[in-house]
Design brief:
This protein is α/β, with parallel strands linked by helices. Strand 6, helix 5 and strand 7 form a beta-alpha-beta unit. Helix 5 crosses helix 6. The chain contains eleven helices and ten strands.
Length: 334
């Protein structure tokens, strides 16, 4: 009687070969997604290191530095106004221990004079603009700009109002639904399924599981964007609240598991863009490009612009002898 391995090994071998082939050629099973924008330069909260986060002044500064995507966060006031703000409670940003949902828009306090950069402790931003803008103001000011709108709270009224604004300004294809929470993302999708979405935290973990089991090439993905942190910034510029997330061994393990060029290339071949956040040093910008990421999210738009210009200048110089050079990917503006 033959051992079960006699039958199992050929099956597993065939599975591994098929999985690898489809990982490299996903178009055989999946239609490529087509986002109408490509993002290399992404401004986190509008560029929170150079101007106060999520202010119109910050967004203007990001635009002047040729950003490809504005990242922002929203909450809703007591009188139903959609406000651009990262935090629901305003203590960190204003010094007032009050939540946006408990006050009207007119009652919102001003930002602090100097605000510490969340992903670069010890560094502060300032500027002339201390006002919390309305999301509608941002849409009006930047009608053609791709915007990543993160919804942090499971608030149906907020989701509906954001969706209504997106539809009113005819920007469904240029506005990304973003949230780390599955219930929130479900609300967003139900309210406006025409908007592209990012992977939630749970879906991101599932993505890794599918990749390492070889199942990823066979599974359809509804997301158009993967936004994730680069583990190597933990304990340097990013300090998670959870102590276990700061464990050195776990940081090392995450780096090995997450920063896989093969995974990023497979997603990109399926039309899914990969963004790494929040990077504020040239060495981290370089690491992100070496890992194969599409976009870099930063608090320093001018710093990233200069880095990308040098990077692409070096590429052109290095390729000069071989003829004309095209941009790294479609849509590069550097």
């Amino acid at each position: 009687m033959r051992s079960p391995l006699y039958y199992l090994l050929p099956v597993m071998g065939g599975y591994a070969v098929t999985s690898y082939y489809l990982l490299k050629n996903p178009h055989l099973l999946h239609k490529r997604k087509k986002l109408p924008f490509y993002c290399r330069h992404i401004s986190h909260r509008g560029g929170a290191g150079e101007r106060r986060e999520n202010t119109l002044e910050a967004f203007d500064n990001a635009m002047s530095n040729h950003t490809d995507l504005l990242e922002l966060d929203c909450h809703i006031t007591k009188d139903g106004k959609v406000v651009v703000s990262h935090d629901l409670n305003l203590l960190r940003q204003t010094g007032h221990d009050v939540s946006i949902c408990d006050i009207t828009y007119e009652e919102l306090p001003l930002y602090r004079e100097h605000l510490e950069v969340t992903f670069f402790p010890g560094h502060y931003s300032s500027g002339s603009d201390r006002r919390f803008p309305l999301l509608e103001e941002v849409f009006q000011r930047f009608p053609h700009m791709p915007i990543n709108v993160e919804i942090k709270e499971e608030t149906p009224e907020l989701v509906k109002k954001v969706s209504d604004l997106v539809k009113r300004y005819q920007r469904s294809e240029r506005t990304i639904w973003a949230s780390e929470k599955d219930p929130v993302m479900k609300l967003c999708q139900e309210e406006n399924p025409d908007m592209p979405i990012m992977f939630t935290a749970r879906r991101g973990l599932m993505l890794l599981l599918l990749f390492y089991t070889g199942l990823l090439p066979f599974v359809p993905l509804r997301e158009s964007v993967l936004e994730t942190y680069m583990p190597s910034i933990i304990n340097r510029t990013y300090f998670p609240h959870s102590r276990i997330m700061r464990n050195r061994f776990l940081v090392f393990l995450q780096e090995k598991l997450m920063m896989r060029k093969g995974l990023f290339q497979h997603l990109q071949a399926r039309g899914i863009q990969v963004y790494l956040w929040v990077l504020n040093q040239d060495s981290d910008y370089q690491r992100a490009l070496e890992s194969g990421a599409d976009g870099i999210m930063t608090d320093y738009p001018s710093k990233l612009r200069c880095f990308l210009q040098r990077h692409e200048g070096a590429q052109r110089a290095g390729s000069g002898a071989r003829g004309p050079v095209t941009a790294d990917r479609q849509g590069s503006s550097y």
